[in-house]
Amino acid sequence: xxxxxxxxxxxxxxxxxxxxxxxxxxxxxxxxxxxxxxxxxxxxxxxxxxxxxxxxxxxxxxxxxxxxxxxxxxxxxxxxxxxxxxxxxxxxxxxxxxxxxxxxxxxxxxxxxxxxxxxxxxxxxxxxxxxxxxxxxxxxxxxxxxxxxxxxxxxxxxxxxxxxxxx
Length: 167
Ligand SMILES: [Zn+2]
What we know:
The protein is mainly alpha-helical.
């Protein structure tokens, strides 16, 4: 026999991100049921999406970002910057009081450096922006040059254009 929380969790995973508005409403309802079954205050539940917007949920999402970056590093080139910005923007839209002045990435970088900058270990992510390998550092340099050229406009084609990553 499934509990109501288990039934709600199954509904959510089945219909999450459905394009059908009825399904989306059912998913939001299921999320609301799931939140209530876990003891989340009704005031903390976003009625449109059913997401838990409590302080506890915020701290938990933030902690999982900090932990992931602590363990695996951070690579803006591979989309980490966009993903963390999207997560923070979503919270800022619903809970500006939580996000104001709260820099997840700064704390994550601190945790990452404290963990990896030790005599017995060093960062194992070759694409980590905090500890870039020579190749990754060169890639970042090339991208910065390309962006500077784009910003300068098409008339400014200098010798840097000839440089290829695949030489
Ligand atoms: Zn690193």
